Amino acid sequence: MNDFAQAVQALRPQLMRFAHAQLRNDAWAEDAVSETLLAALAKPQAFAGQSQLKTWLVGILVALESRSVRTVSCVGSRCCTNTNAMPVSFGSARRSWV
Hints:
The structure is a single chain. The protein has helices at residues 3-10, 12-23, 26-42, 53-69, and strands at 74-75, 78-79. A hairpin with a 2-residue loop joins strand 1 (74-75) and strand 2 (78-79). Helix 2 crosses helix 3 (26-42). It has four helices and two strands. The chain is mainly α. The longest helix has 17 residues, at 26-42.
């Protein structure tokens, strides 16, 4: 495993805490973090070093989750009955989480 992959993997626990705080579901958080790490490791050259690695990974995580959240249709306070669907509220992602 190269240095970049090790650094990404070392941030997994922090990403899990962030994802779980947003999604409030262990399985959804695990899926979100796994997709984030796969995306980051697939294109390591996309990390230009203009931010902290953790900031870049959280950005990927939020982008992936916002795409998933848009697929859930809700009317008022009643959401679809699909219990496997991502929650609608992922908007608090910008709060401090460390």
